[in-house]
Amino acid sequence: MNSDHSISERLAKRLKETRKGKGLSLEATARLSGVSRSMLSQIERCESSPTVATLWNLTRALQVDFAGLLDEGRADSAILEIMRANRTPTIDSQGEGCRIRILSPPDQVGQLEVYEISFTQNGVLLSDPHRLGCVEHLTVLEGMLTVTAGTESAELDTGDTIRYAADSRHGIRATGKPAKALLIVQNS
After folding, report:
1. Which of 74, 137, 158, 173: CA 20 to 30 A from 129?
2. Rounded CA gap, 100 and 42, in Å?
3. From 2.60.40.10, 2.60.120.10, 1.10.340.30, 3.40.630.10, which CATH number describes the 85-186 domain?
């Protein structure tokens, strides 16, 4: 009995820590997992034991494996997180011909954001101004890109890096063929 109780407590604690560590509210986790907000809250308070199906939905939504929810974790572990390629959140912009993979953790939104952007031939990503002082750092991984920030433009080839003010209207366009870039958005 004691062992079952400690597993339930550990699961409740780790579930809550994992959810909060990813910057997710109860409501957001409920939407992602399909588990009701009230059930999720009961599990986190150790007032209810989840079914295998519920645990499966929660681990998929939080992008952790079941063992990860029960693992105490080593305090001296150097690896903080592994984000598998097939689980990386993406934003598809079909009309503009680009796909954005979100590489930074959710709790970094508005601070330091990291994206991989894949462009189809002549694909484009247009952005409204970000907050004052925001800077974007873009490195071309494949192909050629034209970056426009405010009224200035620059053509970049594979391996080139550009830094520009993102607090004015700006855009990135693939030049002639598909391209790929790494984009870091730094908010001051």
Report:
1. 158
2. 35
3. 2.60.120.10
